[in-house]
Design a protein that fits this description.
Its EC number is 4.-.-.-. The chain is an alpha+beta fold. It has a single domain, classed as Tetrahydropterin Synthase, Chain A, CATH 3.30.479. It is built from 2 helices and 4 strands, in the order ββααββ. α1 packs across α2. Bound molecules: the ligand Nc1nc2c(c(=O)[nH]1)N=C([C@H](O)[C@H](O)COP(=O)(O)OP(=O)(O)OP(=O)(O)O)CN2 and zinc ion.
Length: about 120
């Protein structure tokens, strides 16, 4: 098996809901996002999936969040936009776009600071 990871990110504002503390107030992060996929086969060029395609699909999705107020995104209207929930959202959406008979999204890591990361995997 092959395992590939790309790193990208987005900058946005949010506030946690049903949370008591500073983070219930509006604030922002420069989130870093790691996308890991697995594959069993390589193409003629020796690629499991082109990193360019992986980054393009991920960044297209992140554009929905970049420089936005995450709480107003349709997925988070009734859901606290924690790093955990953001990672689950990205996992579900990227799985729809990327999974095929060979490639499978394995996990999403969402870093809200240099020292705090939430991951989602199934
Ligand atoms: N499990 C999670 N815990 C927290 C999340 C989260 O998404 N998942 N999010 C927050 C807030 O978004 C908050 O912005 C965290 O910011 P941070 O600067 O890390 O908070 P602190 O002030 O506690 O960090 P210090 O390193 O102590 O300055 C909170 N928790
Ligand atoms: Zn926050």
């Amino acid at each position: 098996m092959y395992r590939l990871t790309i790193k990208t990110g987005f900058a946005a504002a949010h506030n946690l809901i049903n949370y008591q503390g500073d983070c219930e107030n509006l604030h922002g992060h420069n989130w870093k996002v790691e996308v890991t996929v697995t594959a069993s086969e390589l193409d003629q060029a020796g690629l499991a999936i082109d990193f360019k395609l992986l980054k393009r699909e991920t960044n297209a999705l992140l554009d929905e969040l970049d420089h936005k107020y995450v709480n107003q995104h349709h997925f988070f209207l009734d859901l606290s936009p924690s790093s955990e929930n953001i990672s689950r959202y990205l996992f579900q959406e990227l799985s729809k776009r990327l999974n095929d008979g060979n490639v499978k999204v394995e996990r999403i890591g969402v870093w809200e600071s240099d020292n705090a990361c939430a991951e989602y995997y199934e």
